Amino acid sequence: MTAVRPDTVPQQAPAAQAPFPTGFLWGAATAAYQVEGGASERGRTPSIWDTFSHTPGKVVNGDTGDVAADHFHRYRDDVALMKRLGLQAYRFSVSWSRVQPTGRGPAVESGLDFYRSLVDELLTAGIKPVATLYHWDLPQELEDAGGWPERATAERFADYAAIMARALGDRVSMWTTLNEPWCSAFLGYGSGVHAPGRTEPAAALRAAHHLNLAHGRATEALRANLPAAAQTSVTLNLHQVRPLTGSAADADAARRIDAVGNRIFTGPMLKGAYPEDLLTDTERIVNWPELIHEGDLAAIAAPIDVLGVNYYTPTIVSTPADGAGDTRNDGHGSSDHSPWPGSEHVAFHLAEGKPRTAMNWSVDPNGLHALLMDVSREHPDLPLMVTENGAAFDDAPDADGRVHDPERIAYLHGHLEAVRRAVADGADVRGYFLWSLMDNFEWGYGYGKRFGAVYVDYATQRRTPKSSAHWYGDVIARHALPPEA
């Protein structure tokens, strides 16, 4: 059941000052393993996150995504809730192992049918479906064959992209190849805090290159199988990197993290080349000339229509005088192994004097404005879309069963104002997707962190829109921010 009170469903409100541009798209996002459940239904086989979450000690409380938010069974109710809240778009990801269980060969039609039904439900509700092909859930059989550090995985991904384009291309007009490949490469194969849990710096860099190649090959496959009007994109969690001080050492620390955190993807994807300083910083770890084959860079640089930008918090760095590093404040989980190969010595810091979320991330909307402006200046002809932005707080129902989350409303208000300012300053931002539609399995943190605008009681699967959900619905109805948060 969905707990929506008729008196709280957003109504059309008078437009506030400084509205967002005409056609600006308002949505919310989820990821397959975080919400779907149905882990072994309709032929689905384990992904690396099934294996990882079932490995003792990898996820808080031993939580798994076996059931998650049960979106697999409750998607019709969830779409109805999206409609009542006024969402214009829903960004979902496809479980690769649900539609192509081994990562090879023909698709399982029953798996494809789930996504066909979901998309049909969205279209009937007047909600634009935005499909992400990969949100970290590699089929386990492909990991057993070497995973993303192996070149063959990129080729398998292109085959999978073609399958999805043929299955849904008549109904889905906006496609994203990869979500946050930085996390897939460096948290999965570097620090090991994400699946598959490997801690191999060379493998992490190899994975980054093959994820880049997978994006390029998949973009080509989508173009070959989609209508000409369809849009392709990739979503990157670009780090808004700042040096702690004005020292030359801290400036170099920022350069290093910008290279391995951002430009390792934007360089080849958007400029057709890896940055020279990245290659120099990491040459002791991986043999780049051997890794990059002829034609790779041209394939990776296949043109896209939109760049998705995910932002949560800034990245503040320094170089310690004694050379000792501390990566525990980088916001990417605790590990004895660094997710920053070649720059393991760089230290990370939390912003002073800023509020913190339940993830202990600093709340700083100015970072989103700065990031959008930086990307816009660097790539002025490439439209942008904020594909994830949100915050986890310790939400709980009150005595009346309502969930009030004023901290999240303040977070969203500040960040949407940052987007509005970026647009006013010349950035071509086409839309905003709140992360997340509903509470879900938060990767290594299990069910202990709640990012959703909709509260999920995991024992009953009852959905309760939080105050922020109704506030966001009002923003959508206004097409502008309200006068006050």
Automatic annotation (TrEMBL):
Output compositional bias ranges, type Basic and acidic residues: 325-335
Note the superkingdom of the native organism. Answer: Bacteria
* Pfam families registered for this protein in UniProt: Glyco_hydro_1
Q: Which GO terms describe its molecular function?
A: beta-glucosidase activity
- Catalyzed reaction equations: Hydrolysis of terminal, non-reducing beta-D-glucosyl residues with release of beta-D-glucose
Q: Which Gene3D superfamilies match?
A: Glycosidases (3.20.20.80)
UniProt keyword annotations, A-Z: Carbohydrate metabolism, Cellulose degradation, Glycosidase, Hydrolase, Polysaccharide degradation
Identify the SUPFAM superfamilies for this entry. (Trans)glycosidases (SSF51445)
The residue range of the signal peptide is none
Keyword check for Hydrolase: yes
Listed InterPro entries: GH, GH_1_N_CS, Glyco_hydro_1, Glyco_hydro_1_beta-glucosidase
Entry-linked PROSITE patterns: GLYCOSYL_HYDROL_F1_2
Q: Annotated region Disordered: where? A: 322-341
Instruction: Look up the EC number in the record and give it.
Output: 3.2.1.21
Primary enzyme class: hydrolase
Family, as annotated:
Belongs to the glycosyl hydrolase 1 family.
* Official protein name in the record: Beta-glucosidase
Source organism of this protein record: Streptomyces pakalii
Species lineage, top-down? Bacteria, Bacillati, Actinomycetota, Actinomycetes, Kitasatosporales
